[in-house]
UniProtKB/TrEMBL annotation:
It comes from Lates calcarifer. Residues 1-21 form the signal peptide. The ZP domain is involved in the polymerization of the ZP proteins to form the zona pellucida. This is Zona pellucida sperm-binding protein 3. Residues 90-350 form the ZP domain. Proteolytically cleaved before the transmembrane segment to yield the secreted ectodomain incorporated in the zona pellucida. GO terms for molecular function: acrosin binding; structural constituent of egg coat. It is a single-pass type I membrane protein. Belongs to the ZP domain family. ZPC subfamily. It is found in: Secreted, Extracellular space, Extracellular matrix; Zona pellucida; Cell membrane.
Amino acid sequence: MNMFSNIRVFFCLVCGAVAAAQELNWNIQAGDQRPDQPRVQEPAAVQQEKQSFHEPLAWKFPEPPAVEKPPLPPDFELKTPTPANSISAVCGENSVRVEAKKDLLGIGKPVQAEDVTLGGCPVTREDPDNQVLVFESELHGCGSQLLMSEDSLVYVFTLIYSPTPLGGSPIIRTREVSVNIQCHYQRNHEVSSGVLKPTWNPFSVTKASEESLYFSLRLMTDNWQFARPSAEFLLGDMMKFEASVKQFHHVPLRVTVDGCVATVVPNIDTVPRYVFLENNGCLFDSQLTDSSSRFLPRSQDDRLQFELEAFRFQQDDSGVIYITCSLRATAAAAAVDATNKACSFSNGRWMEASGSHDACSCCDRNCKTGGQSHLTGTDAQWEQEAVVGPITVRERPLS
């Protein structure tokens, strides 16, 4: 019995050791997992898909803020330029003396003496006390021109100001200026310096022409009383244009329209383009297209009105056109002639807006041929280009 008891005890000890070893091996495999915590399961794989919208989004980019017109300052007026009185001349029996203030342009800035010449002749001397440039020349010197009439001799000199760039920079703040100075002498009579009175175009006239001449080209209402607030037309409408020039210190002026070009952009060098007025004031649209385009009879020298029948460019669906015209002003006292006219074609003949129909005889040729005299005081002219647009011409709806 003792032997069987010892075998039984030994067997129990072996079974307990095996059970303890198995429990120790399980704890080692579990690592840091505490027996009282549940096992963490790995998440299942997520299936991704593109999000779809069954209804359109209500959100949109905000509208840009409205551009407000800046308020005009109260009592705002453009300054009227004051003509400069900076040149004087004394015509002697055999010579001329010209004095020019160093503030030649009347803007408070002296010019450089080397930039001013009398017909190419430099300054004879300077008067530093009075800030004056002095030019002296014989009547036949410094590029003078001799003009003769039945009872007088006229010596014409030209005072030229050609500004050089400022301080080595490529800019200037003045423009080239030339002033004619004339000395008149009676023919077949004795000449005495005591009674001579030079007649010459003062610098104030030139300065005023630079700063006080304003051209305008605008669309007008049907009654010609107001500027047209809309630039929209239908095919068959008459577009009414008024060219004008505002003058301040000038003698009375006459405005003319030398030429006009229609384009789809504000550039006359593009294609397509339609030249409907050229040759120094000949309105060809009525002759080319049998339209009703015409100049209206002139009622004022400084205003010129013309009508142009609305049109569109072929194969251009926008219907947008720009009208670019070359405007010119001459002295109203100058004669209406081949290069200074406003002609319309009607009933098989050319007619001039002021009634001088003979001036239109060159419209079917070249009106720029033939010379014009430049010896009078009425041939001065000024030119400027003006653009109207965009003008929209729509098709007329059918009833």
